[in-house]
Amino acid sequence: THHAAPALHWTDLDGAPATLAQWRGRPVLLNYWASWCGPCLKELPDLQRFSHAQAPLPNGVHVVGVALDDVAAARALRDQLQLTYPQLVESDGPPGTAAAFGNRIGTLPFSVLIDPHGNVLQVHNGPLHPADLARWAAAAGVAP
């Protein structure tokens, strides 16, 4: 899977532009979700805990959510679940930029692990569980 991640552009939930390159230098876990996706709703609290644990580590994994949803629904869910990691939005819905990582039919949730140099390390269809997240952190070179 080790190939360069494409140069992608989004907006955050406040309308500010965001690119994948802005997180270069740390591993990034991109997580595609939607408010209408049941498995996504179960996974998001685990991602929040993982993000909180990784944030203080010097080379910790930077979690970034990509909501394939409308801004209002994504904002409401972010606030309800108290998600503190960055949330980007693609209002045109699945597959969106997930197609660039091989998810052409837009299955959700869908996650991508990118190394600090911008190379794709892992892709995963379906929810990530805490044990998966620990494996991904190890794959990204983060000590437990």
UniProtKB/TrEMBL annotation:
Chief localization: other
SUPFAM superfamilies xref list: Thioredoxin-like
UniProt xrefs under Gene3D superfamilies: Glutaredoxin (3.40.30.10)
InterPro entries (alphabetical): AhpC/TSA, Thioredoxin-like_sf, Thioredoxin_CS, Thioredoxin_domain, Thioredoxin_ResA/DsbE_sf
Superkingdom to which the source organism belongs: Bacteria
GO terms assigned for molecular function: antioxidant activity; disulfide oxidoreductase activity
Cellular component, GO, one term: cell envelope
Domain Thioredoxin: 1-142
Keyword annotations from UniProtKB, A to Z: Cytochrome c-type biogenesis, Disulfide bond, Redox-active center
One of the Pfam families matching this protein, by short name: AhpC-TSA
GO BP terms: cytochrome complex assembly
Location relative to the cell: Cell envelope
This protein's name: Thioredoxin domain-containing protein
